[in-house]
Amino acid sequence: MAADVAELPEQGFTLPPWVREIVVPIVAFMLLVAAWEAMVHGFSVPEFILPAPSAIWTETTKIGWPVFYHTLATLRTTLLGFVASILISLPLAVAITASPLLSAAIYPLLVITQSVPKVALAPVLIIGLGANELPRVIVTFLVAFFPLVVSTTAGLLATPPELIELGRSCRASRFQEMARIRFPFAIPFVFGGLKVAIALSVVGAVVAEFVGADQGLGYLIQTSTAFFRTSVAYGAVIILGILGIVLFQVVELIERIFFPWSNSHEKMVV
Amino acid sequence: MIVLDGVAKTFRANDGSAVPALAKLSLSFRPGEFVALVGPSGCGKSTMLRLVAGLIPPTAGDISIEGSRVTEARSDTAMVFQAPTLLPWADVLTNVVFPLRIMGRYTPESEDKARELLALVGLAGFEKKSPRELSGGMQQRAAICRALLIEPRVLLMDEPFGALDALTREEMSLELLRIWSARPMTVLFVTHSISEAVLLADRVVVMSPRPGRIAEIIDVPLPRPRSFEQEGLHEFQDCAQRIRSLIFGNGGRRSGIA
Which residues contact A217 (CB under 8 A, 6 or more apart)? Predict the structure, then answer.
C-alpha cells in the first residue's frame, strides 16, 4: 500500500518508505521517553508516584533473574489459557454452526459467561480449585475464548452459498462440507479471533495472578506496589506490553506463513 | 435418457406464502444431446437444472436419469455455475481435482488427467496458480475442467459464460463445442443469449415465466461442427427470430435485443 502511494508524484520533501515506517516511530518513541525522563527530574516527581524511565530500568534489572522467571510464569499461564481457548472455541463454533438446536442451547450460556466479570470470578475459582495453575488457566480461558467463538462462527456461516452448493453437487457429506469448505473459508475469521484472543490471554493471566499466585508479572505488580516499589511495577507493566506485542506478532506470522491466502485483502470472486 | 415426468417446483417464501417456480412439466433429453434452456428471468431455468442435478427435490413428479430416480446429487452429473466458484485457498490443480477427492475417486492418474484437461482449455502452466491470479474467463475454464474431470454423462451449465465479456464468451462457446464433440455427454445449458443458444444447441427449450413453463421446443437444423459464420444463414436467423417472438411476443421483431 505504502509503495503505491510512494509511486505517485508528490510535491516537496518526501521520506523513503523505510524511514517513514521504521525510523520515524522509533524517534517519536525515544522523544516521548526523553520527555518523560526530563519531566520527572524537572518537576522532582517522587519515585513512588511516577518513576523516571531510567529508574524503572535500574530497579527492574537490579532484581535480575526472578524477573525472568516471573515473565516465564505469566507466559506459561497465557499460552495454556490461549491453547485451551482454541481447543474449546473451535469445536464450539462448529457445533453452533452445525445445528440450530445446539446453537440455541449454547449461545445463551456463552453470553452468561461473558456477562460475569472474570475479575470477580477469579477469587471464587481459587477457593474451589486451590492456588495452583488450573484456576489461573481457567480465568485466562474465560477472558480469551469468547471472541474466538464469535468470529469462527461468523466465518463458518459466511461461507458463500455457491461453495456450499458446489460441495453438495460433489456429494460432500456434512463432515466434508465442514472440514473441506466451511472451515478453510473461515480461516481468516479464525485468525481475526486468535489475534484478539492472544491479547486477551495476557490480560486474563495477569488478572488471575493478581488474586491467586506466588509468581508471575501480575504477582510482581501486586507485591511491588504494596511496598511502594513503583519502578518495579512499571517495569513489569512494560514487560507485559512487550509480551503482548510479541505474542500477537507470532500469531500473525503463523497466519502469513501457513495461510497466505488469509491475509490477502483482495476480494475473491467466488 | 433424462426424463422429467410431471415435475413441478414450488418454493416457500420467508413469509410462508408459496411461490411456484415451475408449473407441472414433462420433458425428456436424449443421451448425448446438447439442449439450451432459454427464457426471461424467473422462468425456472435454473430451478430445472438444480432439479436434474438433484440439489433440490421436486414438489411433484419424478426425475430420472438412465432409468434411476434422482433423489440426490449423482456422481455422473457435473454442474458448472455462473460464477467460477473456485476455492480461494487452493491452487488451480487442487480445485480441479476437488470433486474427485470429495467423492473418494481420486487416483494417482487423476492429477495427470487434470493437467491434460487444463492444457485442453489453454491453462497449461497455471496449475499451481491461485484462482485470484486468473482472469474471469480463465477461472471459468478451470471450473469447466473441474466438471469434466469426473467424466460426467450429464453436464449441467447454469449461464456459465454469463459473467464473461462478449469476446471471451464467443471463444468459450466454440471451445465448449469442441470438448463436447470429443467427449459424448448430455449437456443442459441455461443461457440468456438467444444467439448463444442457437449456436450451441441441438434443441432449444424456450421457457416463459411466472410460473415457469415450456413455451416451445425448437429444433436447430444447423449442421455440425458449428461456427459463427452460420449466424448469417437463414436457418440460424429463423430459429433466433422464432425464439425472440416466443419470449417477447410479436413485438420481438421491433426490439433490438439479441
Answer: A70, A71, A73, A74, A206, A209, A236, A239, A240, A243
Give the per-residue pLDDT at A2. Answer: 46
Q: CB of A268 within 8 Å of any CB in chain B?
A: yes
The verdict on B61 and B179 lying in the same domain is yes
> Does B100 share its domain with B186?
no
ipTM of this predicted complex? 0.83
Edge-to-edge strand list for the sheet holding B68-69: B18-29, B2-12, B60-65, B68-69
Output the pLDDT for position B254.
44
Q: What is the pLDDT of residue A12?
A: 62
Domain that holds residue B31: 2-76+154-253
Q: Structurally, how many domains does chain B consist of?
A: 2
What is the rounded distance in angstroms from the CA atom of residue A202 to the CA atom of residue A144?
A: 9
Residue B96 lies in a domain: yes
User: How far B27 CA lies from chain A's nearest CA (Å)?
Assistant: 22
Boundaries of every domain in chain A? 64-263
Residue of A nearest to B50 (CA): A169
Co-location of B51 and B69 in the same domain: yes
Q: Is the pLDDT of residue A4 over 80?
A: no
Average pLDDT, chain B: 86
pLDDT tens-digit series, residues B152-188: 899 999 999 888 888 888 888 888 888 888 888 999 9
Q: Is 1.10.3720.10 the CATH classification of the domain at A64-263? A: yes
Are residues B178 and B248 both part of a single domain? yes
One domain for residues B132 and B220: no
A261 vs B136: CB contact, 8 Å cut-off? no
B103–A165: do the CB atoms touch at under 8 Å? no
